[in-house]
Amino acid sequence: MICVNPKTGVKEPQLIVALRNFRQREKMTFGIYVRQIEEIPGEIHRDSKVHFE
């Protein structure tokens, strides 16, 4: 997880604050955004293998 010291578990938001300030105070978005193709039925679960085109 970003901004959490892996050894202590303490949140250290300095990196996120610096990135936000660099982007002129715009909202920060992290992650991967995907959607399922409607023509292909099925479900996606944690640990599912997916293919990106």
From TrEMBL:
GO molecular function: catalytic activity; molybdenum ion binding; pyridoxal phosphate binding
Signal sequence residues: none
Chain ranges of the MOSC domain: 1-53
Superkingdom in the source lineage: Eukaryota
InterPro entries recorded: MoCF_Sase_C
Protein name: MOSC domain-containing protein
Record organism: Cylicostephanus goldi
